[in-house]
Amino acid sequence: MPNISAAITPIISVNRALRTPLHRQIYDGYQAAILSGRLRPGQRVPSTRALASELGVSRIPVLTAYDQLSAEGYFQTRAGIGTEVSLSIRSQVLQPKPGAVPRTAVSRPRIGKSSLLPDSIENSPWPRGWGAFAVGQVALDEFPFQVWKKLLARHSNIATTGYFDYCDPMGLRQLRQALAVYLGTARGVQCGAEQIMIVNGSQQALDIAARALLGAGTDVWTEEPGYRFARSVLALNACRVIPVPVDNDGIDVAAGIKRSPRASAALVTPSHQYPLGCTMSASRRLELLDWAARARSWILEDDYDSEFRYECMPISSLQGLDRNSRVIYIGTLSKVLFPSLRLGYMVIPTDLVERFRSIRFAMDISPAVFHHAVLTDFICQGHFARHIRRMRSLYNARRKALVEAITAELGDGFEITGAQAGMHLCVVRNGICDREIAVRAGQAKVWVAPLSSSYAGKSPRQGLVLGFCSTPAETMRDAVRKLRSAL
Question: Quick one: DSSP state of residue 248?
Fold first, then answer.
C-alpha cells in the first residue's frame, strides 16, 4: 500500500436542512470512511481551515469534529506532519468484525463464461517469471536507455499543448510516416502513412480489426497450434474459432476450406508461426490470398517478431503480395524495444480507414502521443535500425547456445522446431506431460510454456516453447540442465 502524503478529503457531505449538527455530520463522515477502509491508517487529512473552505462551512464545526475524532483515537497529530488517521487503529480496521459477512460471500448475478476463452496468464497452472526461458522477454539490459532518456528529456522540455490534448485516433502523423518508410523498406509492406494506425500492442489491433470486420458468430480460421491470447480476443468478439492445422509450409489452406470454406477471416503468423516457428511457403501464401479473394474474406497477418531472422534475409510480408486489399497487417514494437512501451501498429486498406478510425475513437478516443514523438526521433535518428542489428546478432548467439545445449543435455528424443528465426523455439516430444513439466520447471526458476496450451483442439502435441532472448549465452547450458532435472 503506497504512503499517500498529500491530504485527501473523503466523500463527506453536509446538509444544513438536517437536524443533525454540522460537526456531527463531519464526524460521522470521517468515522465511516475510516471504519470502511476508505481512509487508511497513516493517511493525512486536510487541515481544519482547508476542510471548512471545501465544505463551505465555518471552521468551528470542523474543529469540534476533529477534536472528537482525536479524543476517540481516530485521528492523531504529529509535528511536521499534521493530522492523520491514527496508526493505532490499524488492527481494528483490518480485522473483520465478528459475524460480518466477507465481501467474497456477497451474492452476485450469474456471470456467463465463454468456452473459447483460454486461461489468463495469471490463472495458468504453470508459473511465469523473469529469466530463462520465458517467452516474449527481450534483452532489456542491452536496450540503449541512455539514448531513450535523452529523447524523453528533450521532448519533456519542448512539450506543447499538442502533447496533452486528444490527438488523431490514428496516432501521431510523424510516427506513422516514419513507420511507413520502415515497413516499405524492411518488410515489403505497401502503404502510406494515412493507412497506419498506432495501437496499444497487437492485442488491441486484433480487437479493433475484429470489431470492424467480423460479426458475432462468424467463422475465423486460426492456426492450430496458435497464439492462445489471440483466440481470446476473437472469443470476446463472439467469433467462432475454426482451428486449422499447421504443417511445415504454414496454415493448411485446403484443410481450412474443408472446415469452413466461407470463413470471414484467417488469423495467421506467416513469417514465424507461433509457436512451431515455421515460415509460410510462397505457394501457400498465394493459395491463402487466392482463397481470401474468392471468398471475400479477410486475412489478419500478425507479424510479431519478423525483424529477427538468422539464416537468411527477413521474409517479405504477406501484405506485400496482396493485390485485392484483403490483408490487415499487424505489427508490434514490444518485441523490438520493450514490452511496457505498449506500442504496436496496423496497416489498413484505404477504403476501410474511416471505419477503423471510428471504432478506435469509440473505444478510447485516441492514443497518448508523448511516446509517439519520442519514438519518431528514435527511428529517424537511426537508433531503431542500429538496435535491431545489435539484437539480431545477440539473439543469434543466444539461439545457437540454446540449440547446442538442448542437443547436448536433452539428447535425441526432442525435435527442435522454429530455430531459424524469431525469439523462441519449440521442442516437441511424445510421451511427456508438458504442463506438469512446466510447473516443475518453474519451481527451479526456469520458465517454459507448454506447447499443448497453444492448441484449441482436444489432441494437442506435447512439447515446450522456449524463449532465449533474455538469457545470456554463457548461462544457457546451466538453464537447460535445470530443465533436464524437471524432465
Answer: T
